[in-house]
Design a protein that fits this description.
The protein is mostly helical and 106 residues long. It is elongated. One of its GO terms (biological process) is phosphoenolpyruvate-dependent sugar phosphotransferase system. GO terms for molecular function: metal ion binding; transferase activity. InterPro entries: PTS_IIA_lac/cel (IPR003188), PTS_IIA_lac/cel_sf (IPR036542).
Length: 106
Amino acid sequence: MEETAMMQSIMGLIVHSGNMKSECMEALQLAKKGQINEAKDKIKLANEALVEAHHAQTALLTQEARGEKVEVSMLLIHAQDHLMSAITFRDLAQEMIELYEQLKGE
């Protein structure tokens, strides 16, 4: 993979993972206010950002699967870290939204 294409994939991971985490944070704020449906809509947007992040990641994985060397750099590690923490944050946000929904129903 050309260096420019690799950098685009790495930056795609970072950007889309950041967008995902931001949508989840907004979802939590909405749920906290009792706006559960709006919070769930934000989680849907977070999931769309996750799909985009996965596309960027898949480009790198495909290169590796073809036997082409993927140079591991601090930037790539940073991008992967962003993705994994965003996924974890999304999972926790979903759980918290469900909890807010239950509390609201009581």
